[in-house]
Design brief:
The structure is a homodimer of 655-residue chains. In chain A, 30% of the residues lie in helices and 21% in strands. Chain A has 655 residues and is of the alpha+beta class. Chain A has three domains: 46-155, OB fold (Dihydrolipoamide Acetyltransferase, E2P), CATH 2.40.50.140; 184-321 and 478-601, 2-Layer Sandwich (BirA Bifunctional Protein, domain 2); 338-465, GAD-like domain (Gyrase A, domain 2, 2-Layer Sandwich). In chain A, strands 6-9-10-21-20-19-16-11 form an eight-stranded mixed sheet, sandwiched between helices. In chain A, strands 1-2-3-5-4 form a five-stranded mixed barrel. In chain A, strands 12-13-15-14 form a four-stranded antiparallel sheet, sandwiched between helices. In chain A, helix 1 packs parallel to helix 6, helix 6 packs across helix 8 (291-305) and helix 16 (546-556) packs antiparallel against helix 17. The longest helix of chain A has 24 residues, at 182-205. The first copy, chain A, is globular. Chains A, B: This is Aspartate--tRNA ligase, mitochondrial. Chains A, B: One of its GO terms (molecular function) is ligase activity. Chains A, B: Residues 188-605 form the Aminoacyl-transfer RNA synthetases class-II family profile domain.
């Protein structure tokens, strides 16, 4: 029983502290930190409406009370009782059997499951022996006096109890039914409460001003992923911005001092799994702040808003430079819940006879690196190693050698045999282990690290799929990654530079002199916040000097500065030093709730193709509706466009 | 001095209770109701940043403290002191004169006004006699030890002290400077705090769930004012919805029970003064609620979030039927701050000899109505009456007769002379006055009321322009208007009906039988909230029965039900009875702050032509950016479009 399981969990896990039978609701139990007083007031959940109580709150302390409840018929047994459900929980209702209550009985016996009814009656004890200790309301039941059918459920599109087994596309098509599930009720309520706690922290505790910025804006230079919105002026378009970046900086120039917004952002990336065309970020900007200040603010914010049923966060979060993250974890968003770090073992092989290793070490950037797979001999199969080697060869054009510290389990990989005992002993000494498998690869530093970073995550998934407990599901491992490069070589034209993040990021103070001599070496004042290997936020100290901003835009990035003349002019009008950050709310809530996808923490998400499967958006609109916008549809005629179109219309499932 | 006046007011009016010199900040002083505890914690305004204090908070209790301040140079006098400004207020800084402080002196004397500096020093008493009681920090000054120029203000686009006299379009072009003004700082901070108080009321006190709904949606049937957003699928478009109406109802079907959202909404109305293409509403929906429940919720919400420096709101708000509003005030949004109500004086003229009045009374819907202009003989001129008569003739094709109760001031209007003494005496008796001017008109009920409703507001403006105090500027007069008609005849085709509000509005329970016989007579369960003559909110109990919804959509409104099949299906899956409301946040804050325009309560508003004058949005974009959206610009070729285009490009000022 999907709903029953769900709502019992909802009640037990969130509405009631473990081991107690109080009626403390979700909002209170999630509200850690008790912002403004020692005792947070419990919300009134039945104010302004016809019910006197919620189904889920009733317990022995309500015995004898006359109550009116509104809810959905969860199920009915033998026409003697039914279980009524609302967002707060389940309660058992006794269907009266005496002749005088025939009309009430008729209503309660004939209404289909998932119909909406209102019942009034008395809270009574269940007969001795019939209590249900697994049900939060299991000590009581309702002796009904009156009942009213508020709405009959006529056409469920399928058996609701099977809903959980349906595909995600069916869940999205009938989202209004999926929202009744424990999972969605829990995720959306937790999200609401966490955001409320964040607002209290920012607004009430630290004087931030909640300011709404426009979403109908102008195209950002280089903003290739911005949706366009035609205006009534021929050829002129608004853009839906990817973030309020320019506005938040202009607010600092305007002296607002501390800004935040739970901001809707837009990004048109076509079809990408686990991305949404519109998403939400906690957007923050402060004047007169440095990197440490922003980091402390965010640590306090997360600590304050963290769900109370999880372990409290320990601050400050650890910090790591980009260079260290790359060389140790092979990525700029390390999952620090587990080890398997990348180690440099070049020295072990200085005198190796193995040709490919020799060749690499003879090059200037050449290194030999490895990760160590704990109990790899126990959990991995020969086939896994072959898959790994194939992946490395295909994706990175690099060879991966498995090294088995116990020779009796080397699965006969030929190269591995060439590693002499002396080297094996040295590896055993370095890695302090004998039971593991070492994956070794040789090549240029960055590429080698990236490869091993990917293999590290792949192997972790493999080990866990085989039953090893590697990552504690209750662990939330936050990490700051700092000292990113300010610029990166353009992929399509490596002689030119582009911003590693965005062109408003300030250079690291120690590296400013390099801007004019070796800009590719300049580190930035950008910082990323990583949680369990996912980037959940990023920000920077911004450039507040117009001259420097102009130099970077015009000379280094070769951008058209006219597009940003308003910002450059603003910086010259007394812009304070400022910096900020944005947290990806959807991703953060997804990680906290352990949801399978960000779609499970959004009320009405789009499919990965950007469709609303419930209403069928986007959709065709009459040509006359386009006239006032001076646009017309240009049907694709060339083969590329036709192919794209056919892809978009292919009958593959959406999720 | 624009800024000085502004910030002194900011400090005095909002940061400090009248007559006191405490340092209570805006957030606290606005936070009425003290949501969660008896004592709201004062925000820390200098956490995480380099300053130790804000400029505006310093007072005698800080004497002797070493402080670091960051702010803008407001002005400087004789190179001996300067006034430093931040968002919190102004403070006087003494420029050191001794030789050892030459570098500090150089920085503080040479930096242009509006440059950003950081100073450290000691809070000292001003010399006796030099205190400034008008300045909240007027008892102290800062003896500077170190100073740093954080950013020089190089190119102010104009003398900042003249800024206040500039046109609104200049203010919008340099919005980042305008935001430094008292007016904008005050309005945006008040807005932020009021919304925070609303959230506390909804979320913490009444268990509402804050849920974000999509803005990339499907076109609503009849949604002619929706912006379209091309997708990457040829010919398919998203729409930016005018409100989350469908989503909020689907959330109720999904069992969320109590939803709210501070929702961004979009409406493309072309150029309309005091409207914005994107605007914000406090969007609310509840299950199992009736009209009274929603009204009580909103009354509590406004009471709770009302600025503390204003008189507390008295609830419940008065309520009036649409019919009464029309017949008494000639509008569905009466300004109830003053009288001048419309009165029916048909009976006085039953035996009149005046031909035009006789004719009207002989018709079935014919009435004679009047408004009474207090002290009209004193405040109005003959020319005013002539303007009024001309307006009535041109706009309503109706004649307005001025009646002077004192014959010696009848300004020789011929018809007025025809009113015999007996009638005048009866009018004096009815209206309990002699000094006033009566504006009398005769005709069909609705039209006559509408005309007099307009004249009532025109005359009120006139009287106030001439010096009469008619409407108390401190008065906030809320009013519920209820019992609207459910349908109205279509303007272009009066034989057909359209929804008076939207097609999901439930009919009045007493009128349901009329749906099938005389739908034009059905009243709805819609309610409007009116403040001082402006509609600031509207909502309704919704239809939760699929059959009824289908009948109204298909049979009465002749809409294509396929567009709403998802909603109809949802109603059949156990939709609870539900209702809600939306408050227009921009308008509400505008009325509370007394701002001249909603643009003054929005950080980055569009001009009335929908332009962002700072960044120049909307703008042309490269044709290749449109390719992936399969659209192309159709240049207007017919004369109508060309004319429209030229209008859009006319050199008229924007505001």
């Amino acid at each position: 029983m999907y709903f029953r399981r769900g709502l019992n969990l909802l009640y037990q896990g969130l509405f009631t502290p473990v081991g107690k039978t109080t009626t403390q609701p979700l909002c209170a139990s999630l509200g850690r930190g008790l912002v403004l007083s020692a005792q947070r007031r419990t919300p009134e959940l039945s104010s302004f409406v016809t019910r006197t109580n919620t189904c889920g709150e009733l317990c022995s302390s309500h015995l004898g009370q006359e109550v009116t409840l509104c809810g959905w018929i969860q199920y009915r047994r033998q026409n003697t009782f039914l279980v009524l459900r609302d967002f707060h929980g389940l309660v058992q209702v006794i269907i009266p059997q005496d002749e005088s209550a025939a009309s009430v009985r008729k209503i309660l016996c004939e209404a289909p499951v998932e119909s909406v009814v209102q019942v009034s009656g008395t809270v009574i004890s269940r007969p001795p022996g019939q209590e249900n200790p697994k049900m939060p309301t299991g000590e009581i039941e309702i002796k009904v006096k009156t009942a009213e059918l508020l709405n009959s459920c006529k056409k469920l599109p399928f058996e609701i109890k099977d809903f959980v087994k349906k595909t995600e596309s069916l869940r999205l098509q009938y989202r209004y039914l999926d929202l009744r599930s424990f999972r969605m009720q829990h995720n959306l309520r937790l999200r609401s409460q966490m955001v409320m706690n964040m607002r209290e922290y920012l607004c009430n505790l630290h004087g931030f001003v909640d300011i709404e910025t426009p979403t109908l804006f102008k195209k950002t230079p280089g903003g290739a992923k911005e949706f366009v919105v035609p205006s009534r002026e021929p050829g002129k378009f608004y853009s839906l911005p990817q973030s309020p970046q320019q506005f938040k900086q202009l607010l600092m120039v305007g002296g607002l001092d501390r800004y935040f917004q739970v901001a809707r952002c837009y990004r048109d990336e076509g079809s990408r799994p686990d991305r949404q065309p519109e998403f939400t970020q906690i957007d923050i900007e402060m004047s007169f702040v440095d990197q440490t200040g922003v980091q402390s603010l965010i640590e306090g914010l997360l600590q304050h808003s963290w769900p109370r049923d999880k372990d409290p966060l320990v601050v400050p979060f650890p910090s790591m430079t980009f260079a260290e993250a790359l060389s140790t974890y092979g990525t700029d968003k390390p999952d620090t819940r587990f080890g398997m770090k990348i180690i440099d073992i070049s020295d072990v092989f200085r005198n190796t006879k193995i040709g490919i290793l020799q060749d690499v070490l003879n090059k200037s950037q050449g290194t030999i690196k490895a990760i160590c797979i704990p109990e790899g001999t126990k959990y991995l199969k020969r086939k896994d190693i072959e898959t790994i080697r194939k992946f490395a060869a295909e994706q990175f054009n690099q060879e991966v050698l498995p090294v088995f510290l116990k020779t009796n389990s080397n699965w006969n990989f030929p190269v591995a045999k060439s590693i002499v005992e002396e080297q094996t002993l040295e590896l055993i000494r370095l890695l302090e282990t004998q039971e593991d498998v070492i994956l070794l690869t040789a090549g240029e530093h960055t590429k080698t690290c990236s490869l091993l970073g990917k293999l590290r995550l792949e192997c972790a998934d493999l080990l866990e799929a085989r039953g090893m407990v590697l990552r504690d599901p209750a662990l939330f491992s936050f990490l700051w990654v700092v000292d990113f490069p300010l610029f990166l070589p353009k992929e399509e034209s490596p002689g030119e530079l582009e911003s590693a993040h965005h062109p408003f990021t300030a250079p690291h103070p120690s590296d400013i002199h390099l801007l004019y001599t070796a800009p590719e070496k300049v580190r930035s004042q950008h910082y990323d916040l990583v949680l369990n290997g996912s980037e959940i936020g990023g920000g920077s100290i911004r450039i507040h000097n117009a001259e420097l901003q102009h130099y970077i835009l015009a000379t280094i990035l070769k951008e058209d500065v006219k597009m940003l003349s308003h910002l450059l002019q603003a910086l010259d009008c007394g812009a304070p030093p400022h910096g900020g950050i944005a947290l990806g709310l959807d991703r953060l809530i997804c990680l906290i709730t352990g949801a399978a996808s960000i779609r499970d923490v959004i009320a009405f998400p789009k499919s990965f193709r950007g469709h609303d499967l419930m209403s069928n958006a986007p959709d065709h609109i009459p040509a006359e509706d386009l006239k006032s916008y001076h646009i017309q549809v240009s049907r694709p005629t060339d083969s590329a466009a036709a192919k794209k179109d056919s892809l978009n219309h292919s009958p593959q499932p959406e999720c």
